[in-house]
From TrEMBL:
<dbReference type="InterPro" id="IPR002563">
    <property type="entry name" value="Flavin_Rdtase-like_dom"/>
</dbReference>
<dbReference type="GO" id="GO:0006208">
    <property type="term" value="P:pyrimidine nucleobase catabolic process"/>
</dbReference>
<feature type="domain" description="Flavin reductase like">
    <location>
        <begin position="19"/>
        <end position="163"/>
    </location>
</feature>
<protein>
    <submittedName>
        <fullName>Flavin reductase (DIM6/NTAB) family NADH-FMN oxidoreductase RutF</fullName>
    </submittedName>
</protein>
<dbReference type="InterPro" id="IPR050268">
    <property type="entry name" value="NADH-dep_flavin_reductase"/>
</dbReference>
<dbReference type="InterPro" id="IPR012349">
    <property type="entry name" value="Split_barrel_FMN-bd"/>
</dbReference>
<dbReference type="GO" id="GO:0010181">
    <property type="term" value="F:FMN binding"/>
</dbReference>
<dbReference type="GO" id="GO:0042602">
    <property type="term" value="F:riboflavin reductase (NADPH) activity"/>
</dbReference>
<dbReference type="Pfam" id="PF01613">
    <property type="entry name" value="Flavin_Reduct"/>
</dbReference>
<keyword id="KW-0560">Oxidoreductase</keyword>
Length: 168
């Protein structure tokens, strides 16, 4: 079996179509660097370890935000709520001030921008990174969390934002 697939790689378009079927929660990663706040939308967020408490996301090597996130040394994971699709789109757009109104945010200790109205914030210290393919794996050590226990998530599926509908 391994021999049958070794060295083969799926066609890029088919790969994207398959991945688009995986519904994912949406987060915005934020940090404060010398020039001010930076942030980007990501669906590659994942939990990694409970002890120590680690989380991860992948960022594209071409990202203009990534070098500034790395320089900041700490970041927040803002877990978006179901009604925050516009915010997600803004933090994925280039050529806009992502933190200008109508974005509502505050700078919280130890100096990380936190977005308002989210389901949860995870405040992280940059733990480690690894170059992998055309992305960088970024691992954060979680120092604290702020939680809205009633929060329902924003999801991304087949190129569209949507809501989570629990089974009754
Ligand atoms: C729903 C959605 C999910 C995204 N997930 C990621 C991601 O996991 N990693 C990533 O590097 N970019 C992701 N992006 C793209 C970034 O949000 C952003 O557009 C890109 O990094 C370019 O901006 P930058 O140069 O400021 O990084 C996603 C975009 C959207 C709309």
């Amino acid at each position: 079996m391994t021999e049958a697939i070794s060295g083969r790689a799926i066609d890029a378009q088919r790969f994207r179509r398959a991945l688009a079927l995986h519904a994912a929660g949406v987060v915005v990663i934020t940090a404060q660097c010398e020039e001010g706040p930076v942030g980007l939308t990501a669906t590659s967020f994942s939990s990694v370890s409970l002890e120590p408490p680690l989380v991860s996301f992948y960022v594209g090597r071409e990202s203009k935000t990534w070098p500034r996130l790395r320089e900041a040394g700490c970041f927040a994971v803002n877990v978006l709520a179901g009604d925050q699709a516009e915010l997600a789109a803004r933090f994925a757009s280039r050529g806009v001030d992502r933190f200008a109104a109508p974005t509502v945010w505050e700078l919280a200790p130890p100096g990380v921008p936190l977005l308002a109205g989210v389901s949860a914030h995870l405040v992280c210290a940059l733990h480690s990174t690894m170059d992998i393919g055309d992305h960088v794996l970024v691992v954060g050590l979680v120092a604290e969390a702020h939680i809205d226990p009633g929060g329902l998530p924003l999801l991304y599926h087949r190129g569209r934002f949507g809501h989570f509908v629990p089974h009754s």
